Amino acid sequence: VSAAGSEFASTRTSGRPTPSREQRCSLAALGAGPRGWPRVGGSVARSLPRSSPARGLRRAAPGRGRGCGEGDLPKRLTLRSRRIRHPHPYPSATHSRLLRRREPRVSVAYPQRTMRLAIYALLCAGTLGLCLAVPGKTVRWCTISDHEASKCSSFSANMKRVLPADGPHITCVKRTSHLECIKAIMANEADAVTLEAGLVLEAGLPPFNLKPVVAEFHGSNTEPQTLHYAVAVVEKGSDFQLKQLQGKKSCHSGLGWSAGWYLPIGILLPSDSVEEAATAEMAKIFSGSCVPCANREVFPKLCQLCAGKGTNKCACSFQEPYFGYAGAFKCLQDGVGDVAFVRHMTVFENLANRTDHDQYKLLCPDNSQMPVDKYRECNLGLFPSHAVVARNVGGKEDLIWELLNQAQEHFGKDKSTEFQLFASPHGKDLLFTDAARGFLRIPPKMDAKLYVGYEYFAATQHQRRGVEDPQRVLWCAVDHHEKVKCDEWSAVSGGALQCTTEESTEDCIAAITKGEADAMTLDGGFIYIAGQCGLVPVLAENYRSWSY
What we know:
Layout: E1 11-13, E2 16-18, H1 24-29, E3 56-59, E4 76-81, H2 112-136, E5 138-143, H3 146-162, E6 169-174, H4 178-186, E7 193-195, H5 197-204, E8 210-219, E9 224-225, E10 227-235, E11 249-252, H6 258-268, H7 275-285, E12 288-290, H8 324-333, E13 339-343, H9 346-350, H10 354-357, E14 360-363, E15 369-371, E16 381-384, E17 387-391, H11 397-411, E18 438-441, H12 448-452, H13 454-465, E19 473-478, H14 479-491, E20 497-502, H15 505-513, E21 519-523, H16 527-532, E22 535-542
Parallel strand pairs: 5-6, 11-12, 11-13, 19-20
Antiparallel strand pairs: 1-2, 3-22, 4-21, 4-22, 7-17, 8-9, 8-17, 8-18, 10-13, 10-14, 10-16, 14-15
């Protein structure tokens, strides 16, 4: 899993991808073994004692500390986050298995008079055990429409046909929106749902505290890709540019979606816009919009162009015809909107003929237009693929992976004609996106913030709570004693320093990577790990003299 922002790249060997150098970044920081795969427990000893006398600080030499841990490294370095252009720690496909202890069999000889009673008791206990075991092997999948519920039922029936009786099984739970599904999972009324990246982040924040456990990938099995470009699509011949959208009509995938909402806001509005003000400002820019999930009562213009009937108008589900990326593009195709904010694959997914692609253009941040296949040069930003979320504690993540891994083996792309996991005959992107090629397991310690990446998370947080003081440094301290000293430092810093604490060095590295802290001091042994996670050295302790 990489926090450095380069494209996901891995190769499968015997069904298991090999992590690239970049992927080993937060795997190392978040408890990874020497091969780059997650491990349980364990810690890395400090290479030098914390009590080594330091006589001062000097600026670290450029590039120092970014290597592979070899050479003359400074003993302790102060690190901060390197602000990277593109977000995204990319999920890696790990194939972990639960190791169950096999209990020894015990033979017991019963007296003849109690044998029958014992047999009855064993039969009852066995029956009870079977009854109790079934729920433990069942994943309750949350659906948001009748068509999704129908596909979920078919999914369940087909999995029962190919899997043994002891599971894993899938049952279906119906709610009215993804937000309601998130609440249902939090309340232990459901176990899993697939969400767009913006909603993955929403689900990972309080009070929900869910975590991504499985990610969709596109591309090919040998070169799986987990990044998408956000693009602004217009009809060919449109005479306006991205900075000339005032008074135009817009189509969005949904409120809180990456390409449909957060990334366009980052381009069209000032960087210090908070969420409520940003929503109101977006309503002022366009003469009319369809933004599914928006509040019709508070922002009627954001629902003005939606096509749902009655209470389904602007609904946060497929009951609204213009919901999702395919729905936003349909809004443009129908001539309802002038511009659609979608992901780069949307045009190709919905238009089979290449000649039809030429009927649309992309609006670029430099106020130019480009063909739809030039999305790498003309886009609004990067964001990760859809992911399945579950509870952070007791979330059945191993069972969910077992279920989906078996499902993609039997019903993935080109696997079956009876049931197809990545197809929606009665809609679009039901349960999973139709363009997905398969699933990758997300490492257990990766939360929603790491999944979307620092850049994406920081941008959305600014919209939620405004811009923080750029002159104040948030220092990460390890354990109570460092926190006490840090607080003493903060008290005499004149407000230039604040302190936060984590339980381990790895946790502090992760906190800086996620933007929850700004800096920390590291022993040389952790420099390599921090460098893999996108952190850079800015100061080094001086052990020689006060002269520089």
